[in-house]
Q: What sequence folds into this?
């Protein structure tokens, strides 16, 4: 079982300086840590001045019977799931797909969470980045963190969960989508919803020169400067507008992106 000091030492090996970070993590893949996700968060806060993570709440999503064409969604197929939708509230837990760490971060007494009803972020000591989010620009906290010289940390995970690539796609002009969320004020339209991430590992060769890695337990921690990542994704999509899409024949979002590029 990994001890706190081992986790902290691995984070320090990355040598990210005084940069704040956005984190994606899988404790299952790196192995057990004494103290669990709380211990991992404590180590992150000792090494980095600010820590942020996505605390998305997909369970708030609701789908109308009709909507825009080429929106990466089957409106009829989604109708039965509307009865399962929950109202967004500030204390709604992050979706389990985010992993354990984002929920632990959200519950930290020093954390602040944004109010986007689907794509919220939680952070500690990153008020300026969090304040950048709007309904129209849900991934703006990542852009602001990049302007601050921030890094993305991938702890036991790969680029298929790297939300910063979605931000870079939007910056590059890639098609975004419209989704809807259930709130106490009614159903809210949420533009700027990102596409599929299953093809994101294809960006790895363009990042190797800037990425830093450190072993941790059964896996690795990888750190990439956000400005370099955004630049690499934009260059990749400029060279090939269909890059980073998945190959699944039934992926409606990737199909819509391909159609928009014709």
A:
């Amino acid at each position: 079982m990994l001890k706190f000091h081992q986790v902290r030492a691995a984070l320090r090996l990355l040598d990210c300086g005084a940069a704040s970070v956005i984190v994606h993590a899988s404790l299952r893949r790196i192995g057990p840590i004494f103290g669990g996700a709380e211990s991992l968060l404590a180590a992150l806060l000792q090494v980095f001045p600010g820590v942020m993570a996505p605390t998305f709440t997909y369970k708030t999503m609701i789908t109308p019977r009709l909507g825009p064409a080429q929106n990466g969604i089957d409106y009829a197929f989604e109708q039965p799931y509307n009865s399962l939708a929950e109202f967004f509230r500030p204390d709604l837990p992050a979706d389990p797909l985010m992993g354990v760490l984002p929920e632990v971060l959200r519950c930290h007494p020093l954390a602040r969470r944004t109010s986007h009803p689907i794509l919220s972020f939680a952070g500690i000591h990153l008020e300026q980045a969090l304040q950048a989010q709007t309904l129209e620009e849900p991934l703006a906290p990542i852009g602001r963190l990049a302007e601050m010289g921030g890094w993305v940390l991938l702890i036991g995970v790969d680029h298929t969960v790297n939300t910063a690539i979605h931000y870079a796609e939007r910056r590059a002009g890639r098609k975004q989508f419209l989704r809807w969320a259930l709130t106490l004020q009614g159903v809210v339209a949420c533009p700027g919803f990102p596409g599929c991430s299953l093809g994101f590992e294809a960006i790895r060769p363009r990042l190797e020169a800037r990425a830093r890695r450190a072993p941790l337990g059964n896996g690795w921690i990888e750190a990439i400067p956000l400005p370099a990542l955004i630049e690499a994704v934009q260059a990749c999509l400029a060279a090939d507008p269909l890059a980073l899409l998945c190959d699944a024949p039934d992926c409606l979002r990737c199909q819509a992106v391909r159609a928009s590029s014709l």
Remarks:
- The chain has a mean pLDDT of 97.
- DSSP finds eleven helices and nine strands in the chain.
- The CA atoms of residues 106 and 238 lie 36 Å apart.
- Residues 4-260 form one domain.
